Amino acid sequence: MTELAPRELRVLVAVADTGGFSAAAAVLGMTQSAVSHSVRGSERRLGAVLFDRGRSGASPTPAGAVALAHARRALRLLEVMGSEVRAAASAAAGAGAGAGVPAGRLRIAAFRSAALHLLPRALGRLTERHPGIVPEVRIVREVGRGTAGEVLDGRADLGIATLGTTSPVPPELVGGVLVEEGYALVHPAGHPAPRSLPLIDWTENCTSYTRDWWAGQEWLPPATVRAEDDGTVLSMVGTGFGMAVMPELSLVGAPPSVEITDLGPDRPTRSVGYVTTPELASSLAVRALIRELRAIAG
Known about the structure:
This protein is an alpha/beta fold. It has three domains: 100 residues, Winged helix-like DNA-binding domain superfamily/Winged helix DNA-binding domain (Arc Repressor Mutant, subunit A), CATH 1.10.10; 104 residues, D-Maltodextrin-Binding Protein, domain 2 (3-Layer(aba) Sandwich); 86 residues, Periplasmic binding protein-like II (D-Maltodextrin-Binding Protein, domain 2), CATH 3.40.190. Helices cover 41% and strands 22% of the residues. The protein is built from ten helices and eleven strands. The strands form three sheets. Strands 3, 4, 5, 6, 9, 10 and 11 form a seven-stranded mixed sheet that branches. The protein has a two-stranded antiparallel sheet with strand order 1-2. Strands 7-8 form a two-stranded parallel ribbon. Helix 1 crosses helix 2, helix 1 crosses helix 4 and helix 2 crosses helix 3. The longest helix is centred in the N-terminal third of the chain and has 31 residues.
């Protein structure tokens, strides 16, 4: 039997989150030996070493990373189960307005421009309708595994992600497109020859969605300046330092010192959507947030 009890899952997560057995013991109110014993028992039943132990602490092995993703997701389901069972009982008892809507936290991972310009309106509508839901938002760079990775690892219930044929919804998740945003040329306002300026870029911008278009533009030079994020790019463009090609979400609230020029019908686009786990997709809080996201994006 390889099943682990919830308390054993919590020990694994605590060791990973704190980076050591002693720190996990302090968080959990256990002794270090009890934490070590629990981890060894979990490793024995799963048939794999879950943590590399060293002087600097404990870090998950590749097998441990897989186990931790399942542990976090399982513990979150237990938490959601409690919330939704109480909501169902409240509704059955006729507890008045709002009965049947769960209370508790809703964990969201979003990349910067989505968190700044897409989420606030959706969360405002969500909390107005369901004040018992408490959103927790984490800003995650949309590179590598990005926001989808946060959901896969059990750190988020829903991720706002960039989607497309080259970055589809991972097979372990479900999701959908919320908005298709186009790219535009951004340059200092009033500049007589903006395409002659150096190109400013940032890592999250030119992904596979725009790569083919990017390569086919003879006027577009290689980026000579790499900024940390889209806000920094806008600031640099506004001071006359260069030009940039940016998606629409990043241009919401752009300062008057920059000018936005349409790139025409062949401009590149990218899809922004949501991803969640199959088991959480039917939860009341996640469904409520998806409805609000669709409402403001539609």
